[in-house]
């Protein structure tokens, strides 16, 4: 069912899918850079939500600002305001659904957002699953190389046209250079499942290795041959690892 949330005047398009036999847990799923909450049966978050509901976990998926069916302009998107989006969804889940437990699952940039939100809410979040978390976005911004864009990291332009027709805002890159990703993430002391492909050409698996080093209770799964999309032969492994971890 529709689960729209308003954040600073923007409507974020969300969907709540209750489990047939709910166990009191709600999982919030977060998508990556330029992606969406999933609108096809083959989308990672759609498949993940389906598997979670089968084990009694109700799910909420949403589009970050400027993507999918949510309000906003992608050119204004930053990791910081995606954290604000996720915080607004978390609050809505708490107040509207009143679950016994809340888990966060994020892919790519959604993994960074989930990790930082859990760091801000370590007393609220139960478990955390990070799939190919894109913490290297900070290193990329410092180096002046982001998703195929090349720029002067000391003189970042106001806008950067991307190959997919979108425009990336310079403020995204400026804030990315200074994000306290791991410093914030490590405030979460609960169980963490890290999943990364060793053939990921977009986010090096050292990002997950570094997360694994700062967390108190984490398990890292490196999937041989898996790409950043965690698709193909790797998909079933990812779905199984995530659902087994949430179910335990």
UniProtKB/TrEMBL annotation:
Gene3D superfamilies the record matches: alpha/beta hydrolase
What SUPFAM superfamilies does UniProt report for this protein, alphabetically?
A: alpha/beta-Hydrolases
Keywords carried by this UniProt record = Hydrolase
Checking InterPro entries in the record gives: AB_hydrolase_1 (IPR000073), AB_hydrolase_fold (IPR029058), AB_hydrolase_sf (IPR050266), Hydrolase_4 (IPR022742)
In this record, what's one Pfam family? Hydrolase_4
**Which residue range or ranges hold the Serine aminopeptidase S33 domain?**
28-140
- GO molecular-function annotation terms? hydrolase activity
What is the protein name for this chain? Alpha/beta hydrolase
